[in-house]
Design goal:
Sodium/glucose cotransporter; Sodium:Solute_Symporter; membrane; transport; transmembrane helix; 20 helices
Length: 490
């Protein structure tokens, strides 16, 4: 394993080096949080694909393939569909808003009264997403080094926190681009063909496994529908995804670069399912489907290649973890702390302090909180389900309603967040965290309340809507903080 260990160590050292390099580029709030809003198509596509394809998409996607066959691709496939929908229909308008968070978008659309509660919901979602990604380090480092779970979480989490704190979005963008390349080589170009060959080819796989393993809908229609609700719609509204859209250098980059990333996700989904199906032929009696990825890598790949593929799994986890971490810190600082500070000190001006330093401190603090929570928490699936149910049940309707329905009001948006989020929590207590009913009924309740309350309350002020349309069209004024940053930079 010495060669494999060397590959992993070089990879981890490279991540830290890029964090240091990114620190030299992060001179303003815009640089630190959204990479200066100037990424080109290639880097945008690679980094967007990297953040949405995390440990759940790689290790979990192979596990679903092991359990259900080709239909196990549906979870990651719906992630790709969500990214395609976001990129084709919404990303250009989102990028033109020139904001930093989803809650800022809600404030612009509804007149500055919807952001606080939505910020708390979004913070809870991004925190849980970062925690679940961090827990995955334990699985990978256990395969690599037979390492204690707590030590593995601290080691992997500390590396991500370090490069994210140093350079913010610039560091994360650079590391994600490397992670995208490593994942492409490790999973698509190496593990996929090797797994199929080791299993005897597709003809042997079909001979060895039940026909249900090759049924595109074998996982079940209800499961697929739930994946669409949670993951496809979750891609449309998550802060971690929107913050990447904000990095695009142009409308065209946001639209077509994201479309390329979404298409890549569809290919990655099928690859994971095929790898899992091959693992079922090779190891028909594994204790857990999630062991399929690590087992086939450890037992079937040659020295050196094994290290690269394990580095690919590590890359998948790190890209999601770092993206969720900076999203969590951005929401905590910009949507929660800055509002609390403004309420306590009404005359305070955010420009009076070093915003790069402030955001850097928040990433460090949130990173420590994520690592500590990951050490305590055990059930990754339940934590991730709670996060996505809260996100979709509480925020989907007011966000899409704000983008698509002019008559939606601030009162309707707030009611939708409170009722939808509350219904999801209550129904998870009643039906169980992993049940489908909470997201079904929570969404319906949120939609009904949004429409009823919006129609029962006065329409949004015409001046607010005019300013909103100007920003959507890219004709609105730049945020004052960015104008000041640009003048300082020049």
């Amino acid at each position: 394993m010495a060669v494999d260990y060397a590959v992993i160590v070089v990879y981890l050292a490279g991540m830290l080096a890029m964090g240091w390099w990114g620190m030299r580029r992060a001179k303003s709030k815009s640089d630190f949080l959204v990479a200066g809003r100037r990424l080109g198509p290639t880097m945008y596509s690679g980094t967007m694909a990297a953040i949405v394809l995390g440990g759940a998409s790689t290790i979990g996607g192979v596990g679903l393939g092991y359990q259900y066959g080709l239909s196990g691709a549906w979870m990651v496939f719906t992630i790709g569909l969500g990214l395609l929908a976001l990129s084709l229909f919404f990303s250009a308008r989102i990028a033109r808003l020139k904001v930093y968070t989803v809650s800022e978008m809600l404030d612009l659309r509804y007149g500055g009264r919807a952001g606080v509660i939505s910020g708390v919901v979004m913070w809870a979602y991004t925190l849980m997403l970062a925690v679940t990604s961090t827990i995955a380090y334990a699985t990978i480092f256990d395969v690599l080094f037979d390492m204690n779970r707590t030590v593995a979480i601290i080691l992997g989490g500390s590396i991500v926190v370090a490069y994210s704190t140093l350079g913010g979005m610039w560091s994360i963008t650079l590391t994600d681009m490397v992670q995208f390349v490593v994942k492409t080589i490790g999973v698509l170009l190496l593990l996929l063909p090797i797994a199929v060959v080791k299993a005897g080819g597709f003809s042997e796989m079909k001979a060895q496994l039940p026909t249900g393993y090759f049924d595109p809908l074998g996982i079940g229609g209800e499961t697929i529908f739930t994946y669409v609700l949670i993951y496809t719609f979750g891609m449309l509204i998550g802060q971690d995804i929107w913050q990447r859209v904000f990095t695009a250098g142009s409308d065209r980059t946001a639209k077509w670069g994201g479309t390329v990333a979404g298409t890549y996700c569809l290919v990655y989904a099928l690859a994971g399912a095929v790898i899992g199906t091959a693992a079922k032929v090779l190891y028909p009696k594994l204790a857990s489907p999630d062991d399929a990825f690590a087992t086939i890598v450890k037992d079937e790949l040659p020295v050196g290649v094994r290290g690269l593929v394990l580095a690919a799994a590590l890359a998948a986890v790190m890209s999601t973890s770092s993206g969720a971490l900076i999203a969590c810190a951005t929401v905590a600082n910009n949507d929660i702390w800055s509002r609390l500070r403004g309420a306590v000190r009404p005359g305070s001006d955010a420009a009076d302090h070093d915003e790069v330093k402030g955001n850097r401190v928040f990433i460090l603090v949130m990173g420590v909180a994520v690592i500590c929570t990951a050490i305590v928490l055990n059930n990754v699936v339940e934590a991730l389900t709670v996060a996505y149910n809260l996100l979709v049940g509480g925020l989907l309707v007011p966000i899409l309603g704000g983008l698509l329905w002019r008559r939606g009001t601030a009162q309707g948006a707030l009611a939708a967040v409170v009722v939808g989020g509350g219904a999801v929590v209550g129904l998870m207590v009643t039906y169980g965290i992993l049940a489908n009913e909470p997201i079904y009924y929570g969404l319906l309740a949120s939609l009904a309340v949004y429409v009823i309350v919006s129609l029962a309350t006065p329409a949004t002020d015409a001046a607010v809507l005019t300013a909103w349309r100007e920003r959507l069209a890219g004709r609105g004024s730049e945020p004052a903080s960015e104008l000041k940053e640009e003048s300082v930079t020049r």
